[in-house]
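Changelog-adjacent note: as of this version, every example in the card shows the full chain rather than a window. The one below runs 163 residues end to end.
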Amino acid sequence: MKLFGTRPSQPRELKKLMAAQLWPATHNEAIQQNLNRRISAERVHLLIPTENVIFLYPNPSMTLASDHEASRKRIGDTEFFAAYARTLEQIAPDRALFIADFGPGSDAPIALDCRGGTDDPPVIGLKWDGFKSQGPHQWVQLAPSFSDFVRLLDLWALPKFKR
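Full-length structure tokens:
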């Protein structure tokens, strides 16, 4: 499986959200989400009813392939990484831009599936079934497009990040 390639570009709407200070641009802005939940659980349930929190990643630029490799090198080979690696066969990890996750301890990334382009790609998330080292884990579509993701979470109505 090819893990590294040209990194997908960010969709135009994501760039606009960052310019409007509605998406975190830095690590310091991102960690503000740990103190004050920005997106209500009710909004998150519109995407996936089993989760309550979405943590937006600052200035998304890592692919799932590059994030997986960096984490594996930092932590080492574990059963978790073996299980996670098996899920990467379901997608194109070098064309999946890592944008968020479901909060601390979830180990469930949210990504833009850029296989069909980066204008308004579908949003996918990793759904863990059973124990994380076992089970038929799978990537599921959370929203048919990034603009639908933004609309469902009502991101344009959120307060700005403090800079």
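Structural remarks: The chain has one domain: 12-154.
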